[in-house]
Amino acid sequence: MSDTKLPKTYDPQTVEAPWYDRWESSGAFSSDPDSAETPYTIMMPPPNVTGSLHMGHALTFTLQDLLIRFNRMRGRDTLWQPGQDHAGIATQMVVERQLADQGIDRRDMGRDAFLERMWEWKEESGGMIQRQMRRLGASPDWARNRFTLDDGLSRAVVKTFVQMHRDGLIYRDKRLVNWDPKLLTAISDLEVEQREQESSMWHLKYRLEGSEDEYISIATTRPETMLGDGAVAVHPDDERYKHLVGRMAILPLSNRPIPIIADEYPDPEKGSGAVKITPAHDFNDFEVGRRHNLPLINLMTSHAAMESIPEIPAKYQGLDRYEARKQILADMDAEGLLEHEERVQNSVPHGDRSGVVIEPWLMDQWYVNAAELAKPAIKAVEEGRTRFVPERWSKTYFEWMRNIQPWCISRQLWWGHRIPAWYGPDDHIFVEENEAAAVSAASAHYGKTVELRRDDDVLDTWFSSGLWPFSTLGWPDDTPEVHADLARYYPGDVLVTGFDIIFFWVARMMMMSMYVMDGEVPFRDVYIHALVRDEKGQKMSKSKGNVMDPLDIIDQYGADPLRFTLAAMAAQGRDIKMSTTRLESYRNFATKIWNACRFLEMNNCIASAKSIDLAAVSEPVNRWIVSEFNTAVARTTAAVEAYRFNEAADTIYGFIWNAYCDWYVELIKPQLDGEAGETRATAATVLEASLRLLHPFMPYLTEELNEKIFGSDDMMITAAWPDHVDLPASDAPAEISFLISLITDIRHIRSEMNVPLSAKPVLQMRGLSDLQARSIDVNKAALLRLARLDAFETVDSFGNGTARGSVDGVDIGLPLADILDLDAERVRLEKAITGVDDEISKIARKLDNPGFVAKAPAEVVEENRRRLDEENTRRVAIKAALARLG
Q1: Distances 809 to 588, 761, 806 between C-alpha atoms, Å
Q2: pLDDT digits (tens, 9 = 90+) for 21-35
Q3: Cα–Cα distance between 172 and 788 in angstroms, integer?
Q4: What is the CB neighbour count within 10 angstroms for residue 426?
Q5: What's the CA gap between 675 and 671, in Å, rounded?
Q6: Alpha carbon of residue 277 to chain centroid
Q7: How many other C-beta atoms lie within 10 A of the C-beta of residue 340?
Q8: CB-facing half-sphere around the CA of 171: CA atoms within 13 A
Q9: Who contacts 109 (Cβ-Cβ below 8 Å, separation ≥6)?
Q10: Which has the minimum average pLDDT: 164-168, 208-212, 261-265?
Q11: CB 454 within 8 A of CB 487
Q12: Per-residue pLDDT tens for 183-226?
């Protein structure tokens, strides 16, 4: 044996540190528009500029990088388009909090000064997630990095907005919005978090007009909105109220008469069956109000305080909505109009960022006719031009798109794309690409020059994100380079993203891209990955204290073990239960590969790497490992192409750890004491090719070993993906496979029967085929050594005291009467199975108890299910051992 260039211990921190700069400076990440190779495009979901890497990012960027590296090695011209999202609300909140700590309010600063501070923050802090992605090993084309507020993307936003307005797809309307009274902006339905909570429902009495003692009872959880009631509604088929339809009720406290109307909306089985209709403060009531032409009374200010308007008695004006609620209930009670209070479970809308209760609020906003835009986007998925993987997510997409509501795109913020609309003296709106065009249009409209006022609002962040697949390629700039890039890299091959933004982003990209790009879809595949949860299956959250920071994991285990863990656990349709046990396991896998390389180097195999035509090997064990390698290449390739990343990782793991390290290396060890030129060359060549197979999963480790062990001047990142070896047909692979199965079963028998390592029984066999007999004869030394046998023989029958098994149709036996006390062993096993049966019954009783399953924490129930599976597995093993005794 010779010395090795590798340190004895695999240290991921030392291995990984230098490689990223070498990759990037080599130009390996760059796409090549002039290449003759077929392009492969992934549009990176742009992380928020405020963001830092979390486990969801680590998963999605690992899978995207895996696909990019895989296709790069297969000769494709890869473009992984990077960028960051300006994240309107999130980013503005960060800077506003910083200013608040200094006692500064943005409104005191003014818009221009505040935006200057925003850009300063972006330049100072906005690149953190890029640096973190580099630690993970992500290899996008950084030279093409884009930002949703950069000049080019801003031109795309303005041009799209103006064209959509001219086509009637963007319009201004007075509708209810989800108003956040803390952030002072409208937010979309998707930014509203419905929280289940226990609330009070108050039953109130409204007196009927013309009567002093007749009332109609209504129930509400929001009595502060009653002052804006426009009607009381009852179901037209509710016999209790048919005689009241058309009469008037007197609204308490303000003494305003309101009609009693019939509408399908009230549920006769819920509450009293009569409901108050407040069109300006409830989305359902708004639609009822439109059907019946009811007045829209906006009760509140932007801070959710009661307005100073005639419909609100003076004593409530200026009160916070909850203070108003208390006062109104007290006054209703004093007048005998509060019947009773009950506790109910209901969903209350909260802003997902501010955490405050959202107020439905009537105001003028800009909207997109999403229903019209959705039609071609729905058809594209129906026709298979874009497909979802797993396919079941297409049902989610269809359900949302077929029921899509008008999309409110205006936000009352300063950080974002300012809406390109100007108002004349009479509030006539001019939508143009710039102020000069608006002035010109206004002059033509009024017949003179007038002063214009620009809209203060900015666009919803998802408007610019919806243009990402083509705006990042330079649209709408009219240059040969942009036309070439769009023709080459649009549409993308796949979008990799989590299911939580199918509505936020995927649907909007489908709609907006198909509108702008003449009906062409933005991507052919949409791969939806699952969530990363903790090892108990719970969602990670700071409040639970179960958040796993990927940067901490990289520091402790390395980027490669983290990447491989995420890929190996990314089964389609199943959430990832992240655990340190799996991370340790795959770090051990990296160590196994490291040690295999050291072993080859110490046994003088490395110099022979790539010096042999693997198709020409003649030794049976070499033919077998080449055959196993072919299978691994085919299965890994097919799995990655089908987005079955876990199957790809399992295949590579199984081949390198089991086939190569555990079996091939053990089988060839005796040969390495001699010349064994073919075996040395095969061992090195197959391992070098295996590193290429592994590279998209563990890029750092494979680069290090490729250079340090195999002495390559070329980097693995641009190496060729392994090819199938055209191995001539022979029985050799089958012979070695039988040998391995035989040794494996003998080891199982020894383990189950507690045969001491020092004992060397005789192997008895019955029913060998010619191939199997030849395999044993050729490999008898390996069989005796690896199965720890004294000898082997063929028999017609097995005697008493023989532990038996079956391998590929061959009956085998190990006579153990002279090695073990078989009667005592039988007693031990029977006692063990009794203990296992008792434990199985105990756990099963718990799980069969509905009370336990309903009340116990989810992780406790899951732990009991896991233990039940383990005990059942033990039972099967013990029964098998008993069966071997005959």
Answers
A1: 35, 21, 6
A2: 999 999 999 999 999
A3: 83
A4: 8
A5: 7
A6: 41
A7: 10
A8: 10
A9: 99, 117
A10: 208-212
A11: no
A12: 888 888 878 888 998 999 999 999 999 998 999 999 999 999 99
Comparing C-alpha atoms, which of 583, 601, 580 is closest to residue 536? 580
CA distance 689 to 1: 23
Spell out a b/e string for 632-644, using b for 16 or more CB atoms within 10 Å of the CB, else e. Answer: bbebbbebbeebb
300: nearest Cα among 278, 286, 281 = 281
**Residue 218 φ/ψ, nearest 5 degrees:** -125, 160
Helix, strand or coil, per DSSP, at residue 509: helix
**Residue from 243, 236, 238, 232 nearest 207 by CA:** 232
Q: Quick one: tokens of 159? A: 């041009």
Q: Are strands 256-262 and 231-234 parallel, antiparallel or unpaired?
A: parallel
Tokens, residue 556: 């402790």
Pair 722, 689: CB distance under 8 Å: yes
| Token representation of residue 874 | 């033990």
Q: How far apart are CA 505 and CA 492, in angstroms?
A: 15
Q: Is this prediction's pTM over 0.90? A: no
Long-range contacts of range 22-26, CB-CB < 8 Å, 24 or more positions apart?
A: 22/715, 23/139, 23/715, 23/717, 24/142, 26/715, 26/717, 26/718
> How far apart are the C-alpha atoms of 701 and 192, rounded to whole Å?
44
Count Cβ atoms within 10 A of the Cβ of residue 387 and give its class: 0-12 exposed, 13-18 middle, 19 or more buried. Answer: middle
Which three-class secondary structure state does DSSP give residue 65? Answer: helix
Report residue 237 as tokens.
Answer: 């088929």
Q: What are phi and psi of 668, to 5 degrees?
A: -95, -10
Are residues 576 and 566 in contact, defined by beta-carbon separation less than 8 angstroms? Answer: yes
Q: In the block, which residue shows the tokens 């000064």?
A: 113
CB neighbourhood size of 802 (10 A): 20
AA identity, residue 363: M
